[in-house]
Amino acid sequence: MEGVLLLNKPVGMTSHDCVAKMRKLAKTKKVGHTGTLDPDVTGVLPICLGRATKIVEYLTASSKTYEAEVTIGISTTTEDASGEIVEQRNVTSPLFKLQVEQVLNSMLGQIEQVPPMYSAVKVKGRKLYEYARAGIEVERPVRQITITDICLLGDVTNTDSLSKFKFRVTCSKGTYVRTLAVMIGERLGYPAHMSKLVRTKSGQFDLADCLSFEQIEMKVENGTLQESLLSIGEALKDLPKFIIHDTLSKKVKNGAVLELPSQFHDFEPGAPIVLYDDEDRCLAIYAKHPTKHHLMKPIKILMIEN
């Protein structure tokens, strides 16, 4: 079993739970995920199997798209629906669509965000959620994030005490959408939390192409799961590509340093270049040499010489 499986992660499972389940279904220990999703979050979670575990770091996309629901009037410890209520305040005046859209538009571009206490961000060698569970408050690092697109989905629902609405956001890696929900609430003048979240896109991978665990189990039973996996080459198709001929294939498989092709001379050292053979098989990931800029060196050998 080898390739990248696009999983529609179900609610209630951690990314680690999904990896453990796939190990059993695919009968292999070589399984890894490409970006943590909280248990309450559903949607796109690429899972790497077999040799594809070597490319996990290249699939943690810089850009992701989410559809979120915000509940205005209640804040929680975890900033989502699973946490305990911290503050509750009635929304006395109904929120209007234009009002919400203006707040969303104010978040476009580069903004600062403080990660939630219940998160895996490390401070002094410990994850923030470890401090939170121990009841210890620590200073959290301010992060720069980028919101490239954000829009309201549908109307704002107003009840006697709460308001709810959905929005779609495309953002940089490392953005906490639940914190974004809290920030939106603050700009509207109320406590808030993220009540639902779906990741609809991660890099090139789309929710429409993902499989549920029920579908995966059926494919395992009828022996067709391998056909549903993306090849390593397909999964890396957004990275720069270079085709080499037979004479160089053996050198690449053995990890040789090569001349840097002219079209990559402007690349920064370390920027990945994916090498394929004449049969479009993905052989390795190379990068411009850090000191000898006319050369490129191997970063990951994906196909070994027999």
TrEMBL record:
The keyword Isomerase applies. Responsible for synthesis of pseudouridine from uracil-55 in the psi GC loop of transfer RNAs. Belongs to the pseudouridine synthase TruB family. Type 1 subfamily. This is tRNA pseudouridine synthase B. It comes from Metabacillus niabensis. Coiled coil: none annotated. Residues 23-177 form the Pseudouridine synthase II N-terminal domain. The keyword tRNA processing applies. It comes from the Bacteria. Keywords: Isomerase, tRNA processing. The active site is at residue 38. NCBIfam families: TruB. Residues 178-231 form the tRNA pseudouridylate synthase B C-terminal domain. Transmembrane segments: none annotated. GO terms for molecular function: tRNA pseudouridine(55) synthase activity. It catalyses: uridine(55) in tRNA = pseudouridine(55) in tRNA. CDD domains: PseudoU_synth_EcTruB. It holds the Pfam family TruB_C_2.
